[in-house]
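Hi X.,

You mentioned you wanted examples for the new student's onboarding notes, showing what a folding record looks like when two proteins sit in one file. Here is a clean example. The first protein comes first, with its sequence line followed by its structure tokens.
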Amino acid sequence: MAVMIESLIGILLFTVLIVSLTLKNPLTSVGDYPPAIREKCMELGLIEKREQRFTRADILRKGIALLAFVFIFAVVLKQFNGADTFWKGFRDSYLIWLIIDWYDALVLDCIWFCHSKKVRIPGTENMEEYKDYRFHIRQSCIGMLLGLPACLAVGVITAIL
């Protein structure tokens, strides 16, 4: 039950963060948009031309968020879930990670992003790539893999605490 409550809290926090940043300025998260949309933004001069999908600032921001996730979840799982072993810390954190990842892919990406005009970047509004469901599902699978080392770290820290 605690994992479900923590997942719902995580979903709420994740939604507030992502939706508010994207609505304020869709270009803030253009690295998470399908490749054709990013390329069109470069052609239009809306973002700088770059070879890499994410800027150093993007990577730094995501890295800090990942580190915060690891430490916060280790403490939360220890205090509220009674996770006192590596396995319990890893299992619970990865389950929460998966729930948030799938919510992101299905609700935020495939339902909201693919259908909301509010996330469309001027000059790219009519691009079919906004409805590229396969892109979002692939990104979710990558997210599932990225969660493994983070949750392994949560497990280690949980066991040490």
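Then the second protein repeats the pattern, sequence line and then tokens:
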Amino acid sequence: MVTSQQYQVDLIWKEDQINAKVSAVVFSNAIEVASHSCLKNLNEDVWSAEHLFIASIESSYMTAFFRIAKNKGIKFKSFSCTARASVMIGDEFSEITDIIIRPTVTILESNQINKTLKLFSVCKDHCLVLNTLKVRLHIFPSISVT
């Protein structure tokens, strides 16, 4: 079954503000975002567009993992992840060239280790945000058993 959904995010910046605010009708709170690139490193207290972008990739990967793990009957106790992006900066352009994702999962049964390892690579193909990008992705998974 195929369904369609739309998402809307609104951004507002005014001349008397240093940063902008991002909001969505479906949420009660807005997120403050830097009005400059993180490449300038001006304010470490505010999320930059680049940080939000990497967080979007990471949370989309997690969502894909949860959905597929449920469908495959893999029971897990925890999921954590670190993502890092490499940025190439030139005079004419800047681009993200590589993204490293390091997911860590704690599963409940040791007989599901191989199944879980396979799941990590399958998630890449089911990750909505990653499927829209042309970037090299490297996944280094870790599994523990309780």
